[in-house]
Amino acid sequence: MTQPTDIRRVRGLQPQATPDRLRTALNLAASGIPSLPLRAGKVPFGNCPACAQNACGGRPNMKTPGPCVCPYLCHGWAAATTDPHVLNSAAWAPAWRHAATVAYHPGGAGVTVVDLDDPAAIAWAREALPVTRTVATTRGEHWIYRGTMPSANAVRPGVDIKSLMAYARWLGPGTGATAALPDAVRALAVMEPSTARRAPQMLSAPLGGQRGQCPHRTPTYLERGVAMAEQRITEARSGVHATVYRTFLAVLSVHGRCGCLTEAHTARLFTAAQGKGESARHCTDAWTNALTRLGL
Fold first, then answer.
1. 258 DSSP 8-state letter
2. How far apart are the C-alpha atoms of 81 and 77, rounded to whole Å?
3. This prediction's pTM
């Protein structure tokens, strides 16, 4: 990740007239780092009415950065952009006026952030991980590596990984050379198998061998239900574990007995959950618990 260049390199903009946080974002854009504003509480601004509950019909899996078909600051981390004209647009102006800080999409910048929340986590990193670019945070440090991987929360006590489908606060370029992403960091996102009974992550047959009456009057009925479930998970601001479980339970209660829920649908739900930092293990356990609750 390169250091931000002078904002004056961005043609057609007037840096002297921009808020400080917008100026930071424009500097990041000039260096190829996708950024977005965060409101108080270090969370993104909410979707506009046209995009709420995936009403816009675009990017339900949040795999592609940027807004869907509207010009507003929607879809959380996926809104992060390097386009200075989008950042400086009238549609984004209210967010910049109320922004508490600036965030960026590490995966979009080609890096992975190991977020160390306390001194114990920092001490562990100094023992276990290669030296790399370091940024001081309020409570700890961000260790930045060159390369991307799936994001995951709580991979160790006080340690989160922020890369693809996630955002991190911009706290400055940091110090030191950026090392290549080591296998030791990638391994942190691979959880040991749970001792609980497993449900297959990919479902290609009726759940529990059951085939009840199919409620899907049209294919759109199932598609809309899965898309709304993805959106519910993606928009969770707190209690992500509980939200994932309740959403899995809701989907299975409606679509789990007729055999129409395929491995592709399940993969979409797991992708949405992992995009919020859930591990594959937690996703599988939540799915298993929902199956057990429903007797499937």
1. S
2. 9
3. 0.61
